[in-house]
């Protein structure tokens, strides 16, 4: 199967981490997010161990919690020795309420409000990743008021296009995040930061994009960043302690996606960085990365029930399920590819070409087009694989559909980590 935690059992059912998917659907109902906790931990360990080994002591992953945010995931991040990247006060609140230490949090985003900044600093946030001048001033003012000094990294754009999908490409010059190196604005802004009395500039951040399958774009970004560090040293005498290279490696959603050895890629990036630091006379900084999807995506499977199968003569067949863009908007937004199968008939010949449609009331609310399944019937359990990232975290109540629960699997046991939303939840804020 696509990933080693997936198999077909003796009943011909999909098994996730050895647990029968059909029995999970019967026990908890559908739609249902299933998350293999052991897989999440294994993915985290690859980054934690190889970053320490190859980049050196202090280097570690920040889990990009935008990929999947709920209390349980922050507990796992803490236990596995990851810091976290948060982008909103809601993610901050969730992490704090899970007991995640604020000092190990990095606050991202291109518009942190004054209230966000106060909330984060009152909570003892480790770092802000500063994106703009207004925010820098607000942090300085509040730190002055509190009589403290706040650690920050500065977000810069190295101007790299890693040839990924446009909408998830954030390292180019023309984007709303950070300061451009190419235009000279990053260099000038560092001068402004160094004038601040209550801010300590510990290093720099860049994020070049998502779904990167080899080390080359990271090496290219590192080249530009280390040259920039050398410039900062020359111009301001600044010794950069931390270099954050942004989001993690890509994830295999379908068979045609490449298999990637993350540890080996980290080793290659590390030897590249070592060589550049020596060449440019820059002290080797602590290296951070911010993997999100490669920590959680392949640990997730979504289970749905088939409701109807409709063939439009001369056109195509639609299989409708009991979830949709409300729990997985990624096909509607990005035409993202997924692997789809019938969990209760996983051994049967898949020769029925169809489009899987969600239950939301609009024609673009599809989950996948042109997939092959055994001809489904009402009541079959349809599984969409590799849904651990950017599904629950991007879910909505569109059409007043309740968000599904998250069931976590560990050591062959299943437990509810996020309960199913109820109709009362839907109206809880309505006055
Ligand atoms: N760090 C920063 C600053 C980011 O902007 C992102 C993703 C990450 C880390 C994590 O990247 P990852 O390791 O997950 O690839 N909703 C889109 C993804 C948007 C990602 C935006 N930033 C999707 O569903 O594909």
* Unique bound compounds: ligand LLP
**Mass-distribution shape:** globular
Largest sheet: 9 strands, mixed
Provide the β-strand percentage band: 15-25%
Cα separation of the termini = 49 Å
Number of helices: 12
How many structural domains? 2
Strand element count: 21
CATH-defined superfamily of the largest domain: Alanine racemase
Radius of gyration from the alpha-carbon trace, in angstroms? 23 Å
According to CATH, what is the topology of the largest domain? Answer: TIM Barrel
What is the CATH class name of the largest domain? Answer: Alpha Beta
Global structural class: alpha/beta
Q: What is the level-2 CATH architecture name of the largest domain?
A: Alpha-Beta Barrel
The percentage helix is 25-40%
């Amino acid at each position: 199967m696509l990933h080693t935690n997936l198999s077909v059992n003796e009943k011909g059912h999909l098994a996730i981490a050895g647990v029968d998917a059909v029995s999970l659907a019967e026990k908890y109902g559908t739609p249902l997010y299933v998350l293999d906790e052991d897989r999440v931990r294994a993915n985290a360990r690859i980054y934690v161990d190889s970053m320490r080994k190859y980049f050196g002591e202090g280097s570690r992953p920040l889990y990009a919690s935008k990929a999947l945010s709920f209390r349980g995931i922050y507990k796992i991040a803490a236990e596995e020795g990851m810091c976290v990247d948060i982008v909103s006060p809601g993610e901050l609140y969730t992490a704090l309420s899970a007991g995640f230490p604020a000092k190990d949090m990095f606050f991202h985003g291109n518009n942190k409000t004054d209230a966000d900044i106060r909330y984060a600093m009152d909570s003892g946030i480790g770092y802000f990743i500063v994106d703009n001048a207004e925010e820098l001033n607000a942090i300085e003012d509040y730190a002055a008021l509190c009589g403290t000094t706040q650690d920050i990294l500065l977000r810069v754009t190295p101007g790299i296009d890693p040839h990924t999908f446009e909408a998830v490409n954030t390292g180019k010059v023309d984007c709303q995040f950070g300061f451009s190196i190419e235009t000279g604005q990053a260099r000038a802004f560092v001068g402004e930061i160094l004038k601040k009395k209550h801010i300590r500039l510990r290093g720099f951040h860049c994020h070049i994009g998502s779904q990167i399958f080899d080390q080359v774009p990271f090496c290219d970004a590192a080249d530009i960043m280390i040259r920039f560090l050398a410039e900062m040293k020359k111009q301001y005498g600044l010794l950069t302690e931390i270099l954050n290279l942004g989001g993690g490696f890509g994830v295999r959603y379908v068979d045609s996606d490449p298999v990637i050895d993350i540890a080996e890629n980290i080793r290659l990036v590390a030897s590249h960085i070592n060589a550049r630091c020596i060449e440019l006379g820059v002290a080797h900084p602590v290296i951070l990365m911010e993997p999100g999807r490669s920590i959680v995506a392949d640990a997730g499977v979504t289970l749905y029930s088939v409701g109807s199968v409709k063939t439009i003569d001369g056109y195509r067949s639609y299989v409708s399920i009991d979830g949709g863009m409300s729990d997985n908007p990624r096909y509607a937004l990005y035409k993202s590819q997924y692997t789809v199968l019938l969990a209760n008939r996983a051994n049967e010949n898949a020769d029925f070409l169809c489009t899987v449609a969600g239950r939301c009331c609009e024609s673009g609310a599809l989950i996948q087009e042109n997939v092959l399944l055994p001809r489904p019937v009402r009541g079959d359990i349809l599984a969409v694989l590799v849904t651990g990232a950017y599904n629950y975290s991007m879910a909505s109540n569109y059409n007043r559909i309740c968000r599904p629960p998250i069931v976590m699997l560990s050591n062959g046991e299943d437990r509810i980590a996020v309960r199913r939303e109820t109709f009362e939840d839907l109206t809880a804020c309505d006055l």
